[in-house]
TrEMBL record:
One Pfam family, short name: Hexapep_GlmU
Ranges of residues in domain Glucose-1-phosphate adenylyltransferase/Bifunctional protein GlmU-like C-terminal hexapeptide: 307-410
UniProt lineage: Bacteria, Pseudomonadati, Pseudomonadota, Alphaproteobacteria, Rhodobacterales
Gene behind this protein: glgC
InterPro entries, per database record: ADP-Glc_PPase, ADP_Glu_pyroP_CS, GlgC_bac, GlmU/GlgC-like_hexapep, NTP_transferase_dom, Nucleotide-diphossugar_trans, Trimer_LpxA-like_sf
Protein name: Glucose-1-phosphate adenylyltransferase
Length: 423
């Protein structure tokens, strides 16, 4: 398969990452940060997965469009992703919605985020553009998808997940012909179509689109002039191409990166407190569904220089220990019992406390004698001595945010409000 003198397609492509998402279903976790900047997996942030996929696929030109509460995300980019060198023809641009087009225009939709930066994409001189969402957890080789796009001669190639029909109503879904050509694109349908030869499953959009830049550029300019358009890929551009052009489906299973331990392709939208908690806790399994220890496909991030984790005290009832847990650097487990939990950088767990199925974000402190179960603790929260969470649903719901599945989210504001009430 020869794609010209410069065979590697990824060197002719750029990744355009849509990272403006508010992520309101994550409730207070996104009060101070956009969803792509939310912490995940002990060290990383959600956006690191899309960016690492691009980097590991050989893509060295990236743009990140930010909008909602972007400071945390921008700071993370500057600290963790500043190794691109322009003299090697590598670029990483952060593109805040900076009212470049008109004073009253933020990014109106996902397509508009690209339209407002056409001049910047032009300056890269790229042939292909991969549009990515910045808020999903997965490992994928985009070079394989690029090759499929070029070989099929498609106007757009859409990354697709195979999902049970019963769950497909939450997605944009496709109806496809036997050759993979998309015949219909339906946004969150009540009765999703089955797949050829597999009526119980549906192909759902991952929000990953590959275009030839020349084609997309013309399409964006036309879309910008349409007063009836919401300037969104899923609502406007993709249905238009399906109807008037050639749209192809690319199955995630064909380009998913697996280390040999993962039994099935892993993709998660950690957009709710329950999903966020579950995906983090999944990493503590004996054989996790996602292998983050695979050095052939590293997840790049901002790695702080911190001392190793430390476990202290060894007496009955006051033993610093962690079982079936992930414990990041600079954590001190001081006479605390940690099980099936994930402690991010710099967590302090004090004597006689217990943590079970807890996701504890960086620099939180767990007070003595507290008992925490089935919870997510936000960054820097100071858990007071003796607090019990995960035992009494009514008590939990009185002070903290408790999800449908009984997962409790704890922020410092909630702790402070509780302290003020209890005096």
């Amino acid at each position: 398969m020869d794609h010209g003198p410069n065979r590697r397609l990824s060197s002719q492509a750029m990744a355009f990452v849509l990272a403006g998402g508010r992520g309101s279903r994550l409730k207070e976790l996104t009060d101070k940060r956009a969803k792509p900047a939310v912490y995940f997996g002990g060290k990383t942030r959600i956006i690191d997965f899309a960016l690492s996929n691009a980097l590991n696929s050989g893509i060295r030109k990236m743009a990140i469009a930010t909008q909602y509460k972007a400071h945390s995300l921008i700071r993370h980019m500057q600290r963790g992703w500043s190794f691109f060198r322009a003299e090697r023809n590598e670029y990483l641009d952060i593109l805040p919605a900076s009212q470049r087009v008109a004073e009253n225009k933020w990014y109106l939709g996902t397509a508009d985020a690209v339209t407002q930066n056409i001049d910047i994409v032009d300056s890269y001189g790229v042939k292909y553009i991969i549009v990515l969402a910045g808020d999903h957890i997965y490992k994928m080789d985009y070079e394989i998808m690029l090759a499929a796009h070029v070989d099929s001669g498609a106007d757009v190639t859409i990354g697709c997940l195979t999902v049970p029909r019963a769950e497909a109503s939450a997605f944009g879904v496709m109806d496809i012909a036997d050759d993979g050509r998309i015949t219909a694109f339906l946004e969150k349908p009540k009765d999703p179509p089955g797949m050829p030869g597999d009526p119980d499953h549906t192909l759902a959009s991952m929000g990953i689109y590959v275009f030839d830049w020349d084609f997309l550029r013309d399409l964006l300019i036309r879309d910008a002039e349409d007063p009836n358009s919401s300037h969104d890929f899923g609502h406007d551009l993709i249905p238009d191409i399906v109807k008037n052009g050639k749209a192809m489906a690319h199955r995630f299973s064909e380009s998913c990166v697996r280390s040999g331990l993962e039994e099935e392709p892993y993709w998660r939208d950690v957009g709710t407190i329950d999903a966020f908690w579950q995906a983090n806790i999944d990493l503590t399994d004996f054989v996790p569904k996602l292998d983050i220890y695979d050095n052939t496909w590293p997840i790049w991030t901002y790695a702080e220089l911190v001392p190793p984790a430390k476990f202290i005290h060894d007496e009955e009832g006051r033993r610093g220990m962690a079982v079936s847990s992930l414990v990041a650097g600079d954590c001190i487990v001081s006479g605390s019992d940690v099980k099936n939990s994930l402690l991010f950088t710099g967590v302090r767990a004090h004597s006689f406390s217990t943590l079970e199925y807890a996701v504890v974000l960086p620099y939180a402190q767990v007070g003595r004698k507290s008992q925490l179960k089935n919870c997510v603790i936000d960054r820097g929260v100071i858990i007071p001595e003796g607090l019990v969470v995960g035992e009494d649903p009514d008590e939990d719901g009185k002070w903290f945010r408790r999800s449908e599945n009984g997962i409790v989210l704890i922020t410092q504001e909630m702790i402070d409000a509780r302290a003020a009430k209890l005096g």
